[in-house]
Amino acid sequence: MTVNHKIVFLGESSVGKSSLVIRFVKRKFSPYQEPTIGAAFLSKKLTHNNVHFKLQIWDTAGQERYHSLAPMYYRGSSAAFVIYDVTQKVTFEKSKKWIDELKKLGDPNVQIAFVANKIDLAENQKVSREIGQNFADENGLTFFETSAKTGKNVDKLFLQMLDKLPKN
Ligand code: GDP
Ligand code: MG
């Protein structure tokens, strides 16, 4: 039996949403990742703890002009990853807005992970781990620090999420 889950990636443009998805699905990274137009869809089958999963991953564009499309992608999603870039404070502010919107308009059972990406750029870090972790704690979200570039915590991000999702 295969368990299907719809998963959405949200966050400001260029925070690394596509790069995280591609790192997980295709095991690679491109410094010249092309901007996503509208949204991209990737499907991934994997077996984790003896459960066969089929993930339908929606990688959204993030730009304001596509905002009205976002509900199509997060509605019906069992999991949402909200990403910010630790080197760009505005992306952290924007990620908080995505959390509010998901809580208001997303499925009541949606599992949300709050993700601080680009931690390989530590020398340019503008949003500290504490600030991210505190916001996540206050909102009952799991918090991850990732790098799509090095791959740090990318598998963990997905696999810990799968552990929380229904298995039927
Ligand atoms: P998206 O608009 O949120 O999908 O962001 P992209 O995945 O297109 O990434 C935007 C830019 O940031 C690209 O040049 C990526 O190569 C780069 N990038 C993404 N993730 C990381 C990361 O973890 N570390 C570094 N150094 N660069 C990253
Ligand atoms: Mg993208």
TrEMBL record:
<dbReference type="GO" id="GO:0005525">
    <property type="term" value="F:GTP binding"/>
</dbReference>
<keyword id="KW-0547">Nucleotide-binding</keyword>
<protein>
    <submittedName>
        <fullName>Ras-related protein rab-5c</fullName>
    </submittedName>
</protein>
<dbReference type="GO" id="GO:0003924">
    <property type="term" value="F:GTPase activity"/>
</dbReference>
